[in-house]
Amino acid sequence: MFVVMRSGATEAEINGVKGLILAEGLTPFENAGTSRTVIAVVGELGKRREQLKQRLEATAGVAQVTPISKPYKLESREFHPEDTVIRIMDTAIGDGSLTVMAGPCSVESRDQLMDTVDFVAAHGATIIRGGAFKPRSSPYSFQGLGIEGLRYLAEARERSGMPVITEVMDPSQVDIVAEYSDILQVGTRNMQNFSLLLACGRASRPVMLKRGFGATIEEWLMAAEYIASAGNPNIIMCERGIRTFETFARNTLDLTAVPVLHHLTHLPVVVDPSHATGKRWLVKPLAIGGVAVGADGIMVEVHPDPDSALSDAEQQLDFGAFASLMRDLLPVHEHVRHLHDEFEAGEAHAPGTGAAASGGNGDGLSRH
Ligand code: PEP
Ligand code: MN
Predict the structure, then answer these.
(1) 162/367 Cα distance (integer angstroms)
(2) CA of 143 relative to ligand 1 center, distance in Å
(3) Are 34 and 83 spatial neighbours (Cβ–Cβ below 8 Å)?
(4) Can you list the alpha helix ranges (DSSP code H) found in the chain?
(5) Which residues in 90-120 are b (16+ Cβ under 10 Å) and which e?
(6) Which of the residue ranges 11-25, 61-75, 154-168, 186-200 would you say has the lowest mean pLDDT?
(7) Which end of the chain is more exposed for a tag (fewer CB within 10 A), N or C?
(8) How far, in Å, is the centroid of ligand 2 from the Cα of 136?
């Protein structure tokens, strides 16, 4: 359940509510929202539910106690109506700007990474991607450079001033990956690796959670809930395609998930058209599609010589294709931003509503 505090509730009153929750062996999670504080009560309530609700309602500073309708609590808009914005170095994810995570599928060599980073940095990328630990379908395929790859990524960060995202495959790698990079990536194959999710939840770095290729949106949000419930609220959701009956492309990019997630959760959403399609000529149209439906950013694979890549050769963009993608993508983002701002301004002026009013007007531009 959620405890909604009165606006202007004092710190002592908030602490009183938290103390009562803790005394029950449950965990309070606080969201100090812009208008008022909400405290989520997390844990197995069982038969105590009604009695605890009444006690909380009678506690100083409490406006109301409401049941949480969703199984994911900390990720729901009910608990946290405002968009989560994740700030790393000079960039922000989820603030309305366009996040562009670009780089090779795998870090293959120092030169390959630096050449790619120099190019994408000069053409609008905001975050460097590159796999050091690779989750390959075959044990005989290239498995990544491991720690050597992490060192090159850290060097690329120094060189470009951009943060680095890279995959972590196992709880035992979380510390080392967090030491060399800025965002931990959990891959599609690990979306329900609960011990990995909990380990990422205890880490001090933001986490990008890729959608399991067979996961529903609710299962994906529950995976995010594992990370948040372990103490890490900085999560980015990444739609990277799901497996359907269609076999032409590597996966089917579920663009519906983007506005659905913006409706259900406050977390930023990124679309990965590279892994979604597996074909380089499909990357641009689907990156544009992702941004057009409101994604906060994209993740794309870029390689100096895609045909010689040690992994995902068919879907990596060469430099010219990345430049062309950025040229066409930026005006689409500008346009979507403009529509969104106009919509928000209209909401704020409409009587009886406000920018944060839920429901929207059904035109798909409101996130709520
Ligand atoms: C990746 O981004 O390097 C990757 C392996 O992606 P996914 O987990 O979506 O397959
Ligand atoms: Mn790849």
Answers:
(1) 28
(2) 13
(3) no
(4) 11-23, 49-57, 110-122, 147-160, 174-180, 194-201, 217-229, 257-264, 273-277, 280-292, 319-349
(5) ebbbbeeebbbbbbbbbbbeeebbbbbbebb
(6) 61-75
(7) C
(8) 9
**CB of 283 closer than 8 Å to CB of 250:** no
What interhelical angle do 319-349 and 110-122 show, nearest 10? Answer: 40
Which pair of tokens denotes residue 289?
A: 């599609």
Q: Give the type of residue at 107.
A: V
Inter-residue long-range contacts of 352-360, CB under 8 Å, 24+ positions, other chains counted: 356/34, 356/35, 356/81, 356/82, 358/77, 358/81
DSSP assignment letter at 87: E
Q: Would you give the distance in Å from CA 208 to the centre of its chain? A: 5
Cα-based distances in Å from 361 to 265, 286, 290, 307, 353: 18, 26, 21, 47, 11
What does 116-132 look like in DSSP terms, one character per residue? HHHHHHHTT--EEE-BS
pLDDT tens for 283-320 read: 999 999 999 999 999 999 999 999 999 999 999 999 99
Residue nearest to atom 6 of ligand 1 (CA): 187
What's the gap in Å between 208 CA and the centre of ligand 2?
15
Name residues contacting ligand 1 (CB within 6 A).
105, 131, 135, 167, 187-188, 210, 240, 275
Q: Which ligand is nearest to the CA of 271?
A: 1
Digit-coded pLDDT (tens) for 228-277: 999 999 999 999 999 999 999 999 999 999 999 999 999 999 999 999 99
Q: What share of the chain is helix, strand, coil (3-state, %, to 5)?
A: 40, 20, 40
